[in-house]
């Protein structure tokens, strides 16, 4: 009877180990490449501000579709990470599952659209 519990405990430990390793790797890479990461985010934020200014000036001038997709996907990724982090903090490693990832994606998609419309980046 205790065998299924041992397997779930082992899987839980493996998931925690992988997440700890990924977190360590991300921090290490951020320390190495922080100027490039910082510059990239400055570029993206400047583009978002430029897009908002161009749209508020009365015309429908806009940046390229590729840049809009970049901003949309980065915003989606940030919301996905926020939902995942909060759920992982609350529920633990049980949220590392394809069903939960689908739920996070289903929550992140409309949140991204609402956020980008609210700040004025998307006008449609």
Give an account of the 3D structure.
The termini are far apart. The protein has one domain. The mean pLDDT is 84. Helix 2 packs across helix 3. The protein has three helices and no strands. The protein is elongated and about 65 Å long. The protein is mainly alpha-helical and 124 residues long.
How are the SSEs placed, and which strands pair?
Layout (H helix, E strand, L loop, with lengths): L2 H54 L8 H27 L6 H21 L6
Helix pairs in contact: 2-3
Write a brief structural summary.
This protein is an all-alpha fold. 82% of the residues lie in helices and 0% in strands.
Give the domain tally.
1
Largest beta-sheet details: none
What class do helices, strands and sheet pairing give?
A: mainly alpha
| Strand-residue proportion | under 5%
Cα shape? elongated
Order of helices and strands: HHH
Average pLDDT works out at 84
Helix proportion = over 70%
Distance between the termini: 57 Å
What ranges have pLDDT less than 50 throughout 5 or more consecutive residues?
none
Rg, Å, rounded? 19 Å
Q: Quickly count the helices.
A: 3
Total strand segments: 0
């Amino acid at each position: 009877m205790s065998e299924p519990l041992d397997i779930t405990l082992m899987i839980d430990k493996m998931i925690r180990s992988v997440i700890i390793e990924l977190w360590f790797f991300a921090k290490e890479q951020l320390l190495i490449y922080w100027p490039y990461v910082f510059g990239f985010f400055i570029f993206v934020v400047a583009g978002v501000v430029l897009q908002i200014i161009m749209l508020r000036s009365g015309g429908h001038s806009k940046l390229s579709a590729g840049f809009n997709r970049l901003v949309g996907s980065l915003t989606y990724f940030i919301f996905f990470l926020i939902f995942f982090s909060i759920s992982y903090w609350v529920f633990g490693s049980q949220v590392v599952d394809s069903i939960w990832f689908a739920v996070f994606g289903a929550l992140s998609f409309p949140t991204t659209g609402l956020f980008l419309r609210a700040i004025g980046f998307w006008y449609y």
